[in-house]
Amino acid sequence: MEPVTKNLTRQKDCTVNLNSTTTQKVNILMVDNQPENLLALEAVLSSPHYNLVSATSGNAALKCLLKQEFAVILLDVQMPELNGFETAKLIRAREKTKHIPIIFITAISQDMEHVQRGYSVGAIDYIFKPYQPETLKQKIEKFVEIYQKYKEEISKSESQCSAELNEVNKKLDQTTLDLQRTEALAKVISETLIDTIVTFNGQGSILSVNSAVKTMFGYHPDELVGQPIGNLFLKVKGDNRNSSPYLFFSLINSCLGSVIESVALRKDESHFPADIQIGETAVDGHPIFVCTIRDVTERKLMEEVKKKQFNQMENMVKDRTLELLLANERLQIEIEERKKITDYLFVSQERFRKIFESSPCLVAIISLKDKTYLDVNTSWINITGYSYDELIHQKINFLDFIDEPDGNYLHLGQHIRSKKIHYKTKHGEIRAGLLSTEIIDVQPEPCILFVLTDYTERILMEREMSRLDRLNLIGEMAAGIAHEIRNPMTTVSGFLQVARSNSEGLPKEIVDLMLEELSRANSIITEFLNLAKNKVSDKKIQDLNTIIEALFPLIQAEALRSRKQAVLDLHDCPNISVDEKEIRQLILNIVLNGLDSMSSGGQLTIKTYAEEQAVILEIKDQGIGISSEILEKIGTPFFTTKENGTGLGLAICYSVAERHQADIDIETGDAGSTFSIRFKPF
């Protein structure tokens, strides 16, 4: 953080620490009668976002609160005159300051009674000296954040009120304009409407009438003003006495808002059918009625015509209905048949979908036209490593599918039955499988049903079983013949030592060479015996890390001798039941192989860790890696790539792992190889 220039402004006992940037700053009040404590708080809380205000007494703090608004108050408890509890009580008594968070900072008693008193006067936190600066800083940041959010909400509320007031004014202006428009439109509508509109009072006297009355009734509007509205009607629906002037007015209350059929009476005594609709309002407390009269002569004529047409249509419908009933019976039979077919197809489709999704084989549907994936099942996704979206509507890569016998790429234009192939996963793993294909139609595009049975695991298991069979055979041989071989070798060794002491016998160099070769043969037999299936292990509950740490100086010396590095990365692991000598031999064999595979400057790492109820030992080198041909033969007795190797080192490692019920996994590549031995915990 860049240094910030501070200006100190003193106002009596109140000190304000202002940063260089004053916009949008948050005020924080610090109250303590000890200046050095205030300086310490300033050092902790110094920030370009804060205005730090210092007060050396409770009275000074109250004066600061009258002048400024604060986000949080840091208040010392033990002060002369007005102590922290009394100051807090006065702050809480003022309406404007009662919601400001107060944090007590004190070095006096931490008794619960003392703390409870602080909370009772309004404190929200209690910090004891010496305090953690980072903790205090984080707490202040949280209170400042709450204060800023509160201020934002207040600002939003004020803005919202202003916006609502402007919106109300706009609505008032719009209402005035709408009223003016309504008056103008009412006048235009009254003059242009073809319906007659009559207004009358509670006594039935006409108050006004629009100009359409002249065309419809033959009256001038002025002739009707003051006349009873009943004079305009010969008959109203429901008038059994044919005395419309009396009945009309009596029907008003029951017919308000409804359309009433009537017979209107013109000035020349002619009449016509009409629909009337009456509405009610009030002006100065007096009821006013509005009656709309519409000439429906044309509609009545049309209704007569439609009635005749309806009768004709009704007869036609009866005839047609009979035909449709017969056709419907035939259609129902056909629908039932189609439903049976649909249900059968649905069941078949569901059956195929379940088989498709639950099949352990890799199944895909591929377009024969453009060779794109239309669908793949779950097994395909799980084994190849591709997601569903990565495959659908993408072209199949024929380079990933190779015919095993001749190594050629596949051609999917013909039927294939159980062809052995190799195929590549998303992560580059080469797996083996049996491929079968079939041409099918899918709505109605011709497609290829691609069914691949993966048998990679079976091949690996067969290889492992073969290796174990060879290992067991050699172990049984070792137990049976090692003793018989050692006896004559011991006799030969004894006679050679006698001959060596006889000056007239063989030359000393020849005897030494023969003894050295016998010793080498004896060491090979000793290693050979370690392969014995019935070899007894002396297992004890031990810490694997302790065994490795005891062995590490020897490993480090061997690494330094060849200008290489060996490092440990040991983690806490549960104890396991192991034979220490055999585990030491397993580690040394793998470590020496790893050191031999690296050039000068390479690093070998020995790592231990616990994972899923197992203890893992990893030995990782930075060599050139192991080829696939050699990887298949690793662990086979007497197989070696070293010029003077016996080929028993890794075979012994596998034999030791088998006696300890452990698994050995190998990961190899251009960056080196990693041997992982997984032990079951005790």
Question: What features would you describe in this structure?
Answer:
Residues 27-144 form the Response regulatory domain. Residues 181-227, 348-406 form the PAS domain. With 682 residues, this protein is an alpha+beta fold. The chain has a seven-stranded mixed β-sheet with strand order 1-2-4-3-5-6-7, with helices on both faces. The protein has a six-stranded antiparallel β-sheet with strand order 9-8-13-12-11-10. Helix 13 (456-501) packs antiparallel against helix 14 (508-529), helix 15 (544-561) packs parallel to helix 16 (580-597) and helix 16 (580-597) packs antiparallel against helix 18 (649-659). Mean pLDDT is 78; it is low at 1-13, 18-22 and 240-245.
Q: Strand order across the biggest sheet?
A: 1-2-4-3-5-6-7
Measured by DSSP, the beta-strand proportion falls in: 15-25%
Percent of residues in helices comes to 40-55%
Q: How far is the N terminus from the C terminus?
A: 54 Å
In short:
By secondary structure, the chain is α+β, with helices and mostly antiparallel strands. It is 46% helix and 24% strand.
Relevant terms:
682 residues; alpha+beta; 26 strands; disordered N terminus; six-stranded antiparallel β-sheet; single chain; 18 helices
Give the helices and strands, then pairings.
Elements: E1 7-11, E2 14-18, E3 26-31, H1 35-45, E4 50-55, H2 58-67, E5 72-76, H3 84-93, E6 102-106, H4 112-120, E7 125-128, H5 133-192, E8 196-201, E9 206-209, H6 212-217, H7 221-224, E10 233-236, H8 244-250, H9 252-255, E11 259-265, E12 271-283, E13 286-295, H10 297-358, E14 362-367, E15 373-376, H11 378-384, H12 388-391, E16 401-403, E17 416-424, E18 430-442, E19 445-454, H13 456-501, H14 508-529, E20 540-542, H15 544-561, E21 565-570, E22 576-578, H16 580-597, E23 603-610, E24 615-620, H17 628-633, H18 649-659, E25 663-669, E26 672-679
Parallel strand pairs: 3-4, 3-5, 5-6, 6-7, 21-23
Antiparallel strand pairs: 1-2, 2-4, 8-9, 8-13, 10-11, 11-12, 12-13, 14-15, 14-19, 16-17, 17-18, 18-19, 20-22, 23-24, 24-26, 25-26
